[in-house]
Amino acid sequence: MIHTTHAVFAVALTEVMLASEHAPITWQAAATAAVAYAVAPVPDIDQPESWISRHIPGASVVSMFVRHRTLTHSLLVSALLYLVLFGLGLRIPDWLATGIWVGWVSHWVIDLVNPRGVQLFYPLPWWVKPPVPWLAIEVESTGETVIRVALTAFAVLFALAYLFLHAPLEIQHAAGEVLPDARRVVGWGTWPWFGAVCRFLHLQ
User: Fold this and answer.
1) Which distant-in-sequence residues (6+ apart) come within 8 Å of 134 by Cβ?
2) Could you give the CA distance from residue 39 to residue 113 in angstroms, rounded to a whole number?
3) How confident is the model over 129-144, as pLDDT tens digits?
4) Beta-carbon neighbour count of residue 193 at 10 Å?
5) Residues in a beta bridge with 118
6) Which of 34, 194, 27 is nearest to 99 (CA)?
7) Which residues contact 141 (CB under 8 A, 6 or more apart)?
């Protein structure tokens, strides 16, 4: 996936996480989504032609030592990153740590739909990819464009609906006909089990 697809998926995933935890509307919640958006393209630092490698001086050096979609896309690095952010007592703000980790993990999650997949269990030489070939989506294909547009629309619509449901009652009453639709949209993206997992992981 290209960097913009990774970024909007990270935002959409962060929104679903926050809603599933019934998070209040705060600047920290917005900052979490912004950090996830910024971090999501970073694992592609192992690809010299990637957006992140071309825009950060010296970043392309990583690709000389790390094969694309292996180490940086693995559970191993995700676990080590979680340990650094949450387990070493570094006093990193929750919103910042959560945004970094969700942005990183969201990257390889959506890369799982790529035909090549990712070496998720690195250093084991097993590539995890779509079980059915026609479900796979090539980079910069029409399928990826459709996914990116759909994710962007979802992220915007979901954020607006969530904001509306947390707006003062006067505003909700003024646009009462929108209220049922907003509840449905937020209901679709609120998963109790996901919220429970995120709370167990101390995310946000």
Assistant:
1) none
2) 20
3) 988 877 889 988 999 9
4) 8
5) 128
6) 34
7) none
